[in-house]
Every structure is written in C-alpha cells, then in structure tokens.
Amino acid sequence: MAGLGRWAGRILAFGIPAAFGTAAFVYAETLKQPPAESEIKRPATPVRVLTMAPMPVVPRISGYGTVAPVREWRAVARIAGDISARADDLAPGALVPADTPLFRIDDADLRLSLAQMDAQLAAADVKDQTLAASLEIGKADLALAQAELNRQEQLTAQGVATRAGLDTARRQELSARAQVTSIENERRLAKAERDVVLSQKASVSRSLEFTEIRAPYDLRITEVSAAEGQYVSSGQTLLSGEGVEAAEIAAKFPMGHVGPLLRLAGPGAAVTDLKARVRLTAPGHDVTWKAQVVRVGDAIESDTQSATVVVRVEDPLGQAAAGERPPLRRNMFVEVLLMVPETELLTAPAEAVWDGNALVVTGDNVLEKRKVSIAFTMGDLAVIGGGLEAGDQLVITSPTIAVPGMQVKPVEDSARLAALKAEATGQAAPAGSGQGQGKGKSQEGEK
C-alpha cells in the first residue's frame, strides 16, 4: 500500500501541472489581450519629393540639319580662248581672298578684232569727209540750178524764152536736188554703219574685261575644271567655290514643337524672334555657334511631318580654333537649338507627371493625387502649366511604390533638384531623350 501511495503522489505531482499547461495552450488565443494602438501602427513609407519653387529656365527645342554655304559661285568663261594664266594652288579646299585673279584667257583675237574695227572707223571717217565735200559741191550746184530755173521762169513769163528752155532748167534743178539728196542719204547710211562698228567695238572692249576672272568674295574652292593652256568655250565652267562669310542650316523640327515655345516667348512672338544656337558634338566636349533665325520653310515635309527653320552663322571660319572649334563645313550634320530668354518657371521632372496626374504630400504627410497640366517639355523636364503651386511637395518616387492615401515620410531629393536646375538652364544633359534636349558643355552664352 505504501508503494501504491508513492506512485499516486508522483502522478499527481506531474499530471496536474501538465493539465494546466495543456489548458493554457488551448485557451491562449481566447485569453490574450489585444495589443495597444501604438503596437499596430505601421512606420511611414519614405518617398522622395521636390518642393516646388520657380527656377530659372531656358526653354528650348532642338532640330537637326546639314550645313550649307550662304553663297555659291561658279567661274564661267564669258569668251572663248586659251587659258594663258592660272592662279597658283587652285585646288579643292583652298581659300582664296576676294579679288584674287584666278584665270586669264588669251585676248589676242579680241585685240586683233579691235584693230580691224579701228581701221573700219578710220575708213568711215575718210568716207564721211569725202561725202561732206561732195555734199557741199552738190548744194552749190543746186543753188545755181535753182537760180537758172527762176531766170527761165521770168523770161518765159515775159515771152522772151521758149518753153523748151524752161523745161531744161527744171530738169537741171531736179538733177541737182537728187544729187544732194543722194549724198545726204549716203552720209546717213555711213553714219549708221559707223555706229554699228562702234557698238561692235564696245562689245569687244567689254569682252576684254572678261579675259581675267577674279574671285568676287572670299572663297573656298570646291572644284577646279580648267588648266593653263586649255582651250575653253564660252559658257564653260572653270571653277566652283562657296562663300565663307556665313553658313546656313535648314533644320527640321517636328510639328507641334515650335508653337509651345512661341507661347512662352510672349504674345505676338514669331519664329524669327527666337534665339538660336548651332551645336556639334565633338569627342570630350560640344561646340556651339551663335546663330540667327533668318526664315521659315514654306511647306511641311510629307514624309517626316516636320517644319524647316533656317538659321545663319556668321563668319564660321573666323571662329574656328585648331583642336577646339572646327569650321562649319558643307554637309556637316549639326543640332540647332531654338530658345527664348531665361525666365522663372515652375518645373518638375517629366516622369513625375503621368497621364495628367501627379502625387503630392499633404500637410499631414498623406499622399494626394492631383490633376496637372504641362505647358512645355524638353528632355525629362516639364514646365508646369497648372495644378501645382510653389511650396507643394511633388513626389518623384515611382507611382507603383507611392499610393494615394498612404502615410509617407517626405525626403527632399536635393541631388535631383540640382540636376533639374542644371538641365533647366542647359548646363547638363538630360537623363532621357525628347523634345529640346540640352547639353551643358555647349550652352555657355545662351542666356
């Protein structure tokens, strides 16, 4: 019995605690107390924001085109003959100052023609003198014949002379008059012939001016097609060149890009009022030239639906610097920037506005969805037209992470703001591509 009691004591000693443990496990869910409110509150999600404020912006758009000279010139032979002289170092690419003698065509035939015409004029002078003397004699003879006719008429009226004598006097007077008229006509014909010779001489003398061909202005030679000693005919091209005083670029801009820029330029602004720059990307840096908008194309290209704007760069050769700035040459493919003067505008990263919506952080750190309109875009920068105001905290974190209504912790992205400011004034290349890209290394002096 004593052993049985000991076993019963042991069972109770272990069984009762085990039973309490099992009961505690089973009823644990029903017995636990709800946690305090502070224990279920989730931490706020950090989101990157930019505090909206007007910043300096140089609105601009970009197009592309090829360089062409403003003026092209061909040396065309105005007379036929052998080339008796040619300027040294005439070759494609050579630079020729204005008024440089380029070719001389042999003028021996022209001078021979002039000598012949001078002889004809001398003969005409002798003939005119002879006719003048004959005319003087003829007029004297006519005066005598007229006097005799008058005398015969008087005698006939008195009945002294016969009718036959009067008729003879009339025939002599008519013959003398005809002789004078003939000499006068011959003098007029000789004068006309002399005038013809004089005009021919003037033409040959003018042709002598064409025997020497000079550069009309500063030229860059593009082609030489005549050599010394070569016979050339009238109208033959001897040389081709282009002016170096200025260059033009006919740049293509997509339709719809120029209009928003003009609206930013102000009421009544025209394309020719825009500032322009020409940019060439070179290894390690970009090269820019100041330009002027000179005209707008008269039609829209059907294949690209783009408009043409022509800009002019003055003295591109004089602006060249070895190793730093090449001269603008024909057929170079360059970028053309059209811009308006720097102005203060409310801007934002273009990716922060999608489908006309944006997220902002309210005063109690809650995300709110806003309707936003964009007035102008360039690269990954958007000029805000409405929906946002200075002081708003614009969320630039991806919308898939930031959801309207959620509690957030705004974190100012100073690095993105600095990049945005640099891009706004053209001091840095945009991260993306699009309308009006800018590259800072080439934008000095654009403001």
Structural class: alpha+beta
CATH topology heading of the largest domain: conserved putative lor/sdh protein from methanococcus maripaludis s2 fold
Shape: elongated
Mean pLDDT across every amino acid position: 84
Number of helical segments?
Answer: 7
Share of β-strand residues: 25-35%
Look at the structure and give the CATH class of the largest domain.
Answer: Mainly Beta
Number of strands: 24
The share of residues in helices is 25-40%
User: Are there runs of 5+ residues with pLDDT below 50, and where?
Assistant: 1-5, 23-31, 429-447
Q: Please give the oligomerization state of what you see.
A: single chain
List keywords for this structure.
447 residues, alpha+beta, elongated, 5-stranded mixed β-sheet, conserved putative lor/sdh protein from methanococcus maripaludis s2 fold, Elongation Factor Tu (Ef-tu), domain 3, 6-stranded antiparallel β-barrel, single chain
Describe, in plain words, how this protein is organized in 3D.
The termini are far apart. Residues 1-5, 23-31 and 429-447 have low confidence and may be disordered. The chain folds into five domains: 2-30; 46-57 and 343-441, conserved putative lor/sdh protein from methanococcus maripaludis s2 fold (Beta Barrel), CATH 2.40.420; 60-68 and 245-339, Beta Barrel (Elongation Factor Tu (Ef-tu), domain 3), CATH 2.40.30.170; 77-104 and 213-239, OB fold (Dihydrolipoamide Acetyltransferase, E2P) (Beta Barrel), CATH 2.40.50; 108-209. It has helices spanning 2-26, 28-31, 37-40, 108-158, 163-209, 258-265, 414-424; strands at residues 45-51, 55-57, 60-69, 72-76, 81-86, 95-96, 101-105, 212-214, 219-224, 231-232, 237-243, 246-254, 275-282, 285-296, 306-314, 333-339, 343-345, 347-349, 357-361, 367-371, 373-378, 381-386, 393-395, 408-412. It is elongated. Strand 13 and strand 14 (285-296) form a beta hairpin. By secondary structure, the chain is α+β, with helices and mostly antiparallel strands. 34% of the residues lie in helices and 31% in strands. A six-stranded antiparallel beta barrel has the order 3-12-15-14-13-16. Strands 20-19-23-1-24 form a five-stranded mixed sheet, covered by helices on one side. The chain has a four-stranded antiparallel sheet with strand order 4-11-9-6, with no helix packed on it.
